[in-house]
């Protein structure tokens, strides 16, 4: 199949049908009259465009909204059931697959066994099969699947989605998951760094979400996602937030592709701690095992966790002083380790500037167990519901020869 065209960050004209969709979707406008007021266009023009969105099935008009002057106006809202998206979070030792409606509500999330060490081609097969079976189990129609996003614990080139020199999965270097998925489907498929997805999930999960935020993924590796002025900051090529290859005090226990002696990842990541514990005769295999050992209170393990936390906190202090975020979010399996997190906080607050530290909130991810899939759902929703894509869908609908239904738009009394 051919790859879908992507509309990421594409332009749209104010007052266009895409813009009108965006305003309704965000809740900024909920009736034809508020749209006309906000956009400053003739109500008749607005109505034609709203009608197109209704015919597309993306917007529904229901209920009665009391408008100014006592006339009744009907309220417009996103039809969140007009399709759904697939979301996947691939970690070193766990994979989650989920589906979300167009309003961003997660309909299902499932842990699935996918062996990433088998390489990207087999993993793509397994991920696609897992998504299809989740869709079937939830009695959804696969034809309504509009797009898929996949998070990976690796640097991801933007916008291609190509994996570049992942530190612990060498067979994934240059992996092109959108290309592999094009064997199965022609819907848009996006690949994103896992820490970026945690950042997106935090920003969109409601509550007091911050426009200046760092999300630190503490898993087998260490990653960082950046929200700057409310937008995901990927940098020029997608490598923004690769904080873990800074030299720190301590000794590497694993090799790292970066070539920097004693980089943070090779000294203090979950993978490095597992290796250190193995040298000492412990049997921990995963980051989650390390957290469990620390919880047991073994003094040697707690010492190792504290020292890793001090290294991570030191690197974070530098980037926090540079970036001045409001929130630092800690996610990933290792963020459940109390001694590690306490040491990160202590070092970070000790070394950050007063102007930076006064307003800084360091906290756990709101939904640490599934932040990755939630962020993936947000990412792909922004793509499949992008104003420019909606414009295109409306054009296709208008050009469609089968679309010969009589004009049944009821005339609104003026
Ligand atoms: Zn490194």
Report what the structure shows.
It is a single chain. With 414 residues, this protein is an alpha/beta fold. The chain folds into three domains: 63 residues, Arc Repressor Mutant, subunit A (Orthogonal Bundle); 129 residues, Nucleotidyltransferase, domain 5 (2-Layer Sandwich), CATH 3.30.420; 159 residues, Nucleotidyltransferase, domain 5. The C terminus is likely disordered. The structure holds zinc ion. Zinc ion binds next to α7. This is Sugar kinase of the NBD/HSP70 family, may contain an N-terminal HTH domain. It comes from Agreia bicolorata. Belongs to the ROK (NagC/XylR) family.
Structural descriptors:
alpha/beta, Nucleotidyltransferase, domain 5, 414 residues, five-stranded mixed β-sheet, 12 strands, 18% strand, ATPase_NBD, binds zinc ion, Arc Repressor Mutant, subunit A
């Amino acid at each position: 199949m051919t790859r879908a065209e992507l509309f990421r960050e594409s332009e749209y004209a104010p007052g266009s049908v895409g813009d009108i969709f965006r305003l309704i979707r965000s809740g900024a406008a909920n009736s034809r009259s508020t749209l006309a007021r906000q956009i400053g266009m003739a109500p008749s023009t607005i109505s034609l465009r709203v009608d197109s969105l209704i015919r597309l099935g993306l917007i529904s008009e229901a209920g009665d909204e009391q408008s100014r002057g006592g006339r009744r106006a009907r309220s417009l809202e996103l039809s969140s059931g007009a399709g759904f998206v697939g979301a996947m979070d691939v970690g070193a030792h766990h994979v989650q697959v989920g589906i979300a409606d167009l309003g961003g509500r997660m309909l299902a999330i499932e842990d699935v066994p996918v062996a990433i060490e088998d390489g990207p081609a087999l993993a793509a097969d397994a991920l696609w099969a897992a998504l299809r079976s989740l869709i079937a189990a939830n009695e959804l129609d696969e034809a309504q699947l509009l797009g898929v996003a996949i998070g990976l614990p690796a640097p991801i080139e933007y916008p291609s989605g190509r994996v570049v020199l992942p530190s612990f999965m060498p067979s994934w270097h240059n992996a092109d998951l959108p290309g592999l998925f094009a064997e199965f489907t022609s819907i848009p498929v996006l690949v994103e760094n896992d820490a970026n997805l945690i950042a997106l999930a935090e920003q969109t999960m409601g509550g007091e979400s911050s426009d200046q935020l760092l999300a630190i993924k503490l898993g087998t590796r260490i990653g960082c996602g950046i929200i700057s002025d409310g937008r995901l900051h990927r940098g020029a090529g997608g490598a923004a937030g690769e904080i873990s290859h800074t030299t720190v005090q301590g000794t590497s226990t694993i090799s790292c592709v970066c070539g920097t002696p004693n980089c943070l990842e090779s000294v203090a990541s979950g993978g490095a701690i597992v290796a250190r514990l193995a040298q000492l005769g412990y049997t921990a295999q995963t980051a989650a095992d390390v957290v469990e050992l620390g919880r047991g209170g073994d003094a040697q393990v707690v010492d190792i966790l504290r020292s890793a936390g001090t290294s991570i906190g030191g690197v974070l202090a530098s980037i926090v002083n540079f970036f001045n975020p409001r929130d630092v979010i800690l996610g990933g399996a290792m963020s459940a380790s109390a001694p590690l997190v306490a040491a990160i906080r202590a070092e970070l607050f000790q070394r950050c500037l007063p102007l930076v530290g006064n307003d800084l909130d360091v906290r756990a991810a709101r939904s640490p167990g599934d932040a990755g899939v939630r962020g993936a759902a947000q990412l792909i929703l922004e793509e499949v519901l992008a104003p420019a894509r909606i414009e295109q869908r409306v054009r296709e609908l208008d050009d469609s020869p089968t679309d010969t239904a009589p004009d049944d738009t009821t005339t609104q009394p003026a």
